[in-house]
Amino acid sequence: MLQNQNITLGQAGLANPIRALSMDAVQNANSGHPGMPMGMAEIAVALWHRHLKHNPANPAWADRDRFVLSNGHGSMLIYSLLHLTGYEISIEDLRRFRQLHSKTPGHPERGYTPGVETTTGPLGQGIANAVGMAIAEKTLAARFNRPEYNVVDHHTYAFVGDGCLMEGISHEACSLAGTLGLGKLIVLYDDNGISIDGHVEGWFSDDTPKRFEAYGWQVIPDVDGHDIDAVDRAIAEAKTDISRPTIICCKTVIGKGAPTKAGSHDSHGSPLGLEEIARARLELNWPHAPFHVPTEISEAWNARAKGEQLQADWSQQFEAYRSVYPNEASEFERRMAGKLPHDFDEKARDFVAQTVEKAENIATRKASQNAVQTFAGLLPEIIGGSADLASSNLTLWNGIEPVTATSGGNYIYYGVREFGMAAIMNGLLAHSGVRPFGGTYVMFSEYARNAMRMAALMKLGTIYVLTHDSIALGQDGPTHQPIEQLATLRLMPNMDVWRPCDSVETAIAWQVALEQVATPTVLALSRQNLSFQPREQEQVASIRKGGYVLRREQGPLQAVIIATGSEVGLATEAYKTLAAQGIHVRVVAMPSTYTFDRQDRDYKQEVLPVGVPRISVEAGVTDYWRKYVGIEGACLGIDTFGESAAPDVLFEHFKLTTASVVNAVRELTGHGTGEQ
Length: 676
Ligand SMILES: Cc1ncc(C[n+]2csc(CCOP(=O)(O)OP(=O)(O)O)c2C)c(N)n1
Ligand SMILES: [Mg+2]
Fold this sequence. Notes:
The chain has 676 residues and is of the alpha/beta class.
């Protein structure tokens, strides 16, 4: 039992169970990171016991504070906190740390663990997610609050370590956070001077306070991270500045409490060992068995009653708000639930019908802008943006209101920060209430890639408007010309890549993207104008199946041409030429392989009949298309880097012309190539 109630329930009393649970769970799993939770235990007490506004019984409460563990390797810290404060995380769940399908995976994962807001582990992205959450809060507050009703009024807190601050993305996100004056973002920095390779002086000697001052943040330096009262005061001070984000720099000792490993990278990422743990128990005055937390301490930590009260107070306010502003209240609820308005389907159909009617020969980036113009009118939750390429990506519409330091809005000028943008979008969506899209060139999705992958992993329906989708962007040359990007994006699980061939496919791609709440979508769009493809009604309806017969053979079928985007035009031209030569092919437009692959077998075989030779045409790597055309099929594409030249010259150079398609089909079908 407790040896000294005062000590146990004093400063150390609430911090030591975090230490004990963390070191014991890591030891039990024989894998994990005890150092960070042991070093940040007091900081966690100050925030989670004294400041955090949350309701463990309802992790989805709209106005809860958001908490992000950006240094996600310290996952046992958040799991301990969730258990101690009363979330649905039991001691048994902690015992199952890092085991298959447990609620306590290796790093915190959104969707696995009640109370985990975002998946963290790739260092630096959590802080960028937190910036997104703070922007969401700011824009929702600006949209929904009324003078006497602050229905949106919460903070976003993030814990970061040295690793997060070394990562370049922290610069992108924190620089923008300063510019946007995100006063309700509060970051607690675990300044322990240690990362995996040892003492950081040799690789991280920034003056972090000066760095954040330069961003325009409020900086609270030199806080003793093991003094709960000092951290508590710093958080209170942070909250008073509502026009600047705050970073609280906390000096800590990694692995504090471990007798020989504290202060050393030895405590960072491996179990302490049974002997070290036994001695730590003595040092911490924690005589309890592994995974045992005395009732007094559990009770002192439990935040259920307080949380219920906090939410009840808010609900009362919200009901008063509803009585005065019923439309706002229901709109707020719709948006927080991520539901499309009732008439979305009908309005989207109208828009597609109008697009068919107009039959415009426009670039798909322009068609995308037309879609945005319509859909942003229907969905005020849309929050657009671009990484300094608005006029190239065509992400602006009539009705944008930029988010600034002094106002909310529906458009973010992200600046040249692709990775930051994509990770901020994840935070925006993870917050709920907004639906982000962001633009850059297809090429620079490479900079954003890991955040896009995190969206796919987290099942967040972010939308990427990626333009300049091939060598057809021309004279900017191979640095800007995507070759393998579309194929590699398609390889990402749960990432839907659409490469539409005209205005109609673009409109439908946008509609599908907005309907998909748990799958992110890439819209790969052309810079150059593309010909409108006439279609029957039924074909228009089939676009949303991802692949469909655009031109049907007019005689015995000899080959199928599968094409995407700008190369669909080549395929339909070749179709005509070949028909005149008595060679009957069909053209399958395949804007989304992800979607097509999910259709039933019958449909897929109807589109791509078994046993008929196939040929793919796409201005990018050919390997990806082998799964459709087989080893015996033909692939027209580009397997080298691009070149600087005008688009027409490049299409000739890379043999992506109607004549090349005709020749390839003739060869594939045994007609020789000399005749046309
Ligand atoms: C993007 C990324 N690169 C590398 C890693 C591997 N990694 C995990 S923790 C860590 C060191 C982080 O140092 P710090 O944030 O100071 O953590 P501490 O050791 O103080 O807990 C590294 C390199 C990672 N998780 N994410
Ligand atoms: Mg560190």
